[in-house]
UniProtKB/TrEMBL annotation:
Domain PilZ: 123-239
The organism's place on the tree of life at top rank: Bacteria
Protein name: Flagellar brake protein
Type III secretion system flagellar brake protein YcgR PilZN domain boundaries: 20-121
GO molecular function annotations of the record: cyclic-di-GMP binding
An individual GO BP term: regulation of bacterial-type flagellum-dependent cell motility by regulation of motor speed
Organism encoding this protein: Hydrogenophilus thermoluteolus
Keywords: Bacterial flagellum, c-di-GMP, Cell projection, Cilium, Flagellum, Nucleotide-binding
């Protein structure tokens, strides 16, 4: 049986949607590394930490986890959706499984669960993500031109930002965005600094409803090869927003 200290709190999948790996080959690679390195995982049910575990085997459409020595604890999570979280190569790794059931793997009792459809991979610096205040009017001018063509910049409102990427709001009947799409030489406009040239890779696209009840899309994008000077400018802006939020909270309290 595995043993580990209680891990970090669960990370909000929606907030860090642009860091969720969804390609089946990438998912398989991560799961195999978790298995081969016998990475300690925390098992959560209903947002509550329940027990430590490890992946003990993989099949085409299933994962197998080791059980707790406490049989009552094992029974308490059967047929329930769960989330597993651990650190692989120093990177927080988190994924959800639809349900757990008791099974056998190579002659040993184990939990069995369907393979996840996505895995969140989050480096420490990417925790420092802030929601952008509407008053800041932060915009990302996405370059939609094909390689070699003159730039064609389409502005989108930025919802949140970190050193790892941004989330942008895509209005109805606007640009068609799909995961994996790369936009080179785009322009990120934030207060107090010169416009920043960035390249973006779309990681996830989610349908959401805005304050007016309109059906819009939220695209989570990661920065590609972010220059150090741009990263420093972003970090200064993030600290500024965090300071404003603390001051606001202090006034309210």
């Amino acid at each position: 049986m595995s043993s580990t200290q209680e891990p970090l709190r669960l990370v909000d999948f929606d907030r860090y949607a642009d860091h969720i790996v969804t390609h089946p080959k990438e998912i398989d690679f991560i799961l195999r590394n978790l298995w081969q390195q016998r990475t300690n995982l925390g098992l959560f049910v209903a947002q509550r930490y329940v027990m430590p575990t490890q992946i003990v085997g993989l099949a085409d459409h299933a994962l197998f986890f080791d059980l707790s020595q406490n049989e009552a604890l094992n029974q308490s999570v059967v047929e329930k959706p769960a989330v597993c979280q651990g650190k692989l190569d120093g990177i927080l790794t988190q994924f959800a499984v639809e349900s757990l059931r008791l099974a056998h793997y190579q002659g040993t009792r184990a939990f069995q669960a369907p393979r996840p459809t996505g895995i969140l991979r989050l480096q420490r610096r990417e925790y420092f993500r802030v929601h952008v205040p509407l008053s800041h009017n932060v915009v990302c001018k996405v370059n939609t031109a094909p390689p070699g063509a003159p730039p064609h910049l389409v502005p989108f409102r930025v919802l949140d930002v970190s050193n790892g990427g941004v989330a942008i709001l895509i209005p109805p009947a606007s640009l068609k965005v799909v995961p994996g799409h790369i936009f080179h030489d785009s322009i990120l406009v934030i207060p107090t600094v010169e416009p920043l040239v960035v390249s973006l890779e779309v990681r996830n696209v989610y349908h959401v409803t805005n304050r007016l009840g309109q059906y819009v899309e939220r695209a989570g994008c990661r920065f590609i090869n972010l220059p150090p000077a741009v990263e420093k400018a972003l970090q200064r802006y993030i600290f500024t927003v965090q300071r404003e939020m603390r001051l606001h909270d202090n006034r309210v309290s």
